Each structure stands twice: as structure tokens, then as C-alpha cells.
Amino acid sequence: MAQLSDDCFAFGGPMMSVDEAVRLIAERVTPVLDVETVTLARADGRILAKEILAPLPLPPFTNSAVDGYAVSSRDLPQKQEQAFAVTGRVQAGSSAQPLRPGRAMRIFTGAPMPDGADTVFMQEDVRVEGDSVILPAGLKPGANVRPAGEDIPADFAALQAGQRLRPQDVALVAAFGLTQLDVVRRIRVAVFSTGNELASPGEVRAAAQLFDSNRFMLMAMLRRLGCEVSDLGILRDDRAALARALQEVAGTHDLILTTGGVSTGEEDHVKASVESVGRLVLWRMAIKPGRPVAMGIIGGTPFIGLPGNPVASFVTFVHVVRPTILALSGAQPEKLLPMPVRAAFSYKKKISRREYVRVTLRKAADGALEAVKFPREGAGLLSSLADTHGLVELDEDVTQVAPGQAVGFLSYASLIN
Ligand code: AMP
Ligand code: MG
């Protein structure tokens, strides 16, 4: 398990910016170093533990990019079309006889270039007359050929340690002929909800209770990040029970994640219970939505307590939990890159804090993408997350947004993967 020092989340300032939070996490969280071997079919989404050098060039041999006729560039018609006798035929997967000078050979996409040939005419550009083919003038030497190694040369560092494998990366590993690869083992996360007002879906809900939605949202987000999740259900607002439960999972998980109970109300027991079994600091983050986020260490295991309001929980997950999971898994830190879109709303905000506005995108009459703000702002509105496409990020120095202004958009697809 990851072992962190008790003071690793200590923070001097009164308010923490989102960027500072991300930087602190990247600096102070020690990565899990355990490696496991997975087959190609199981590699998607995993973090590569070691760089992969290309064991062979891609493509492995020089081949034709089209269906057509292979010739030597020495024979290319210069001023006017010219007839060539066609000798030989080579299709993908077979090998060719050498090409004789002054001749053309029938060739198909992916077939190896015959010795003596270095240029291919597309079949659409030629005329066939009996056993000959009429080739036009003006083709460049080397046209329509894919040289060995043009994609990736042999020994090239094609994939980096810490890279999160995407389907196209898995394709690359397969193209190298590898059958398995070393990845960081899955990060183990224990997830609890807290609150007497919560009932689990499937349980009887008392009149003053609501069904626990955060736990399922958080577990889904964790699984998208490749985590192994322990669902530990709902903890009641009871300090001793909370403390016991936290201590129990500390040794066997890489991260303990809770939602609810971290504000300063009398019934917010998470802070006190963490303090009784470990060390806790409150990160007052300059972010909206999102209230203080509790950061701590219990027996060397990092602890994160997210706010209970679903939207605050979602947004703080993205900016605190996601970077923590990436750091634990030794992944390269990912900088979120907001996409410029046009605001179709006006908005006022406080200076010095980062705000996230839930928006849907639409295409305006002039073709530009416009962000339309969800009409209500409450941090408890699940519909505001479910019925929108992503978040507009308003930086600390922004105080207002006017319709037509350019703003940065982060799609949910980019935030929860
Ligand atoms: P808390 O952070 O515990 O003060 O909770 C803030 C608000 O979020 C309250 O209205 C809670 O009922 C709600 N809430 C807390 N935990 C959850 C949860 N797991 N699922 C849905 N809503 C929650
Ligand atoms: Mg609560």
C-alpha cells in the first residue's frame, strides 16, 4: 500500500487554489510501485509501468499503399504516357519475385514492394490494354509506397512509463507483436458515504431520508480511472463508528474516500473521527462548487473527505481525487485543457476563486459552439450534472461573463475518464 507521511497534506495558506491543490498532490503523493503483467486484451486504461521500445519498425517492410502497378522510378514516363508489359502479381501477405527493368507488376494494398520497384501507380490512374498497362507521365518517384519504419522506426521509445493506455496505444503494442505488458497494479480505494439521512438504493427509505447517490457516482468515476473499489456502504453520523471503519480499511487500501460530513456542522463527524485515528487538514479550496475538502493520513494511507452535495462532490473529485489517483498510479500528471467556446449566458463571480458553470453545448447559426448555462445553480441538483455536457471553467481573475465572450469548456468525457 502507498505509505504517506502524516504531514504530507499540510498547507500553509488560508485558501488553496485549484492549481495549488493539483501541484501539491503531484509533489507529495508517493506512487504505488507494484507492477503486474496483463494481456493485450486487458491493457486498455491501465498505466504502463515501463517504457516500450519498438522491437521492430512499423510498417515492418516496405509495401504498397494502394491497389495498382509497381514500377522502378528509373522507368517513370517523363513527358507522355507509356505502355509497360505487366509481369507478375503480388498481393498482401505474399512475397514477390523481383521486378524486371522496364516492366510493371500488378500489386495490391499492403503487399510487399518487389525488389527493383519503388513506385506504385494507382489502378484508377492507368489503362489496361491486353497484357500491358498504360502509365501516365508525371508521377513522383516513391509515390504510393509506405517505406518500412515510416510510422515508427525500430528501437523508438513508442510508449512511456506512466502513460495511461488508450485503445490506440493498445493497437501499437499489438502491432509490435507483444502479447502482454507490465502495468501498475490497480489502485485500491475504499469508499464510504456518511450521513444519517442516507439510505442505500434497495433499502427502505424513511420519510426524512434520501437515497445515497454520491457513492455510486464516485465509484463509477473511480472505476473509469481503473481503480479497484471497495464499496463500504453508508456510515452513520457517529464518531466512534466512523473511526473504527476508517481504521479498518487503512492498511488494505491505497486511498480512503468519503462523501459528506466534512463541513463544520455539529453533525459533521468525519473530521473528528479522522483526527482520532490519524491526521487531518482541511483544504479550504478557492473553488465553486465545492466546500472545504478534508485531506488526511490514516496509518500511512491517504484519506480524502469530499463534500456531500452531489455537484460539489463531483467537482472536487475531478480536481482532488482524480489527480491523487493519477499520482498514486505513477501516471504522468494530466493538465486539463479547456476548449474555447462562446458563452451564451451572462454570469457574475467573485474574484480570486475558480468557478465551474454547468453547461450544454449547441451549435449557433454561424457554426460556432455556444455554451448554454443550466438554468439553476444549486450544488444539490443532480439534474444539473445529468442534463449538461460539461463545465465552463472561469479562472480566478474573472469577475463576469457576458454573452458572446470566449470561455473555456471541459467536457465530462475529458473529466471523468
Ligand atoms: P453534508 O456534506 O454531509 O453536510 O451534506 C450536504 C448535503 O449533501 C446534504 O443535503 C446531504 O443530504 C447531501 N448528501 C450527503 N451525502 C450524500 C450522498 N451520499 N448522496 C446524496 N446526497 C448526499
Ligand atoms: Mg452529512
Q: What does this molecule look like?
A:
With 417 residues, the protein is α/β, with parallel strands linked by helices. The protein folds into four domains: 18-33 and 186-328, Molybdenum Cofactor Biosythetic Enzyme, Chain A (3-Layer(aba) Sandwich); 48-58 and 150-183, Molybdopterin biosynthesis moea protein, domain 2 (Alpha-Beta Complex), CATH 3.90.105.10; 63-146, Molybdopterin biosynthesis moeA protein, domain 3, CATH 2.170.190.11; 339-416, MoeA, C-terminal, domain IV (Beta-clip). The protein contains eight helices and 28 strands. The chain has a six-stranded mixed beta sheet with strand order 7-4-6-5-9-8, with no helix packed on it. It has a six-stranded mixed beta sheet with strand order 16-13-17-21-20-18, with helices on both faces. Strands 22-25-24-26-28 form a five-stranded mixed barrel. Helix 1 runs parallel beside helix 6 (310-328), helix 3 runs parallel beside helix 6 and helix 4 (239-250) crosses helix 5. The radius of gyration is 30 Å and the shape is elongated. The two termini are 23 Å apart. The model has no long low-confidence stretch (mean pLDDT 96). The protein binds adenosine monophosphate (AMP) and magnesium ion (MG). Magnesium ion binds next to loops.
Question: Strands of the biggest beta sheet: in what spatial order?
Answer: 7-4-6-5-9-8
- End-to-end distance: 23 Å
Which ligands accompany this protein?
adenosine monophosphate, magnesium ion
Q: Report the CATH superfamily of the largest domain.
A: MoaB/Mog-like domain
**Average pLDDT, to the nearest integer?**
96
Number of strands: 28
Describe the main β-sheet briefly.
Answer: 6 strands, mixed
Category from helices, strands and their pairing = alpha/beta
- Content of β-strand: 25-35%
* CATH topology (fold) name of the largest domain: Molybdenum Cofactor Biosythetic Enzyme, Chain A
Q: What's the Cα radius of gyration?
A: 30 Å
Number of helices: 8
Shape, principal axes of CA atoms? elongated
Task: Quickly count the domains.
Answer: 4
* CATH architectural grouping of the largest domain: 3-Layer(aba) Sandwich
Range of helix content: 10-25%
Low-confidence stretches: none
The CATH top-level class label of the largest domain? Alpha Beta
